[in-house]
Amino acid sequence: MAFKAIFWDSDGTLVNTEPLFFEATQKILADVGVELTYEWNSQEALKKNRSAFELAYEKGIDPETIKILRKKRNDLYSKKLSNKVEICNQVIETLQKLHGKINMGVVTMSLREHFNIIMDSTNLAIYFDFFICNEDVIHEKPHPESYLKALKKSGFSKEECLVIEDTERGVKAAKKAGLTCFACPNQLSETNDFSMADKVIKDVSEILPFFNFN
Question: What is the phi/psi pair of residue 38, to 5°?
Fold first, then answer.
């Protein structure tokens, strides 16, 4: 059976924003003497959804200060997004072929503030039927809540829906929701464990044969 709906992760899947988020977080933590490495980000943040601000807490920085640091990071990330957002390889071409033929939604754990900047700067919003952001759920990925909400919004059965993710925690969220999930790793997530994914692809154009456009 060909898929009839597709749920896209955003950061690292549609847009190459994860390096910007990492850089913003790394800068703010460095200002208070906390080191954030690429390895920690890949193994702990992208795989397990651990916040990098846990490192600040472990260094003895109090919760109120961490709250202020998080706000500074979010503001810096917004500034970086406003300067430039790079669309991932083959995304535009693939979305153009699917648009109007397949029900599509974005399921992201980004704050809506950041997601809106991304959509405004890339004009990608025109390709999608709905969006689910961080504020729309109680539990973040790898909890399945966001994908269960997407499933309900789409109106299709689990068997008719495909998820595209770039991280281990995203794949886990999709699989816990009972959905087929293809993993499309990037430079930051390539060391994640994608054994749960139904297929690992090099770029998103590889999904096109799984859809029937007739």
Answer: -60, -40
- Rounded Cα gap, residues 150 and 145, in angstroms: 9
The answer to whether the bond into 142 is cis (omega within 30° of 0) is yes
3-state SS, residue 211 = strand
35: which 2 tokens? 């080191």
Q: In the numeric block, which tokens belong to residue 20?
A: 């910007």
Sequence-separated (6 or more) residues with CB below 8 Å from residue 57: 63, 66
In CATH, the architecture of 5-16+86-210 is 3-Layer(aba) Sandwich (3.40)
Q: Where are the domains of the chain?
A: 5-16+86-210, 18-83
- For residue 153 the two structure tokens come to 């919004």
pTM of the model: 0.92
Whole-angstrom distance, CA of residue 18 vs CA of residue 61 = 25
Helix (H, G, I), strand (E, B) or coil at 157: coil
Locate 122 and state its tokens.
Answer: 């890339």
Count other Cβ atoms within 10 Å, centred on residue 68.
13
pLDDT tens string 124-148: 999 999 999 999 999 999 999 999 9
Using CA atoms, how far apart are residues 98 and 132, in angstroms rounded to an integer? Answer: 19
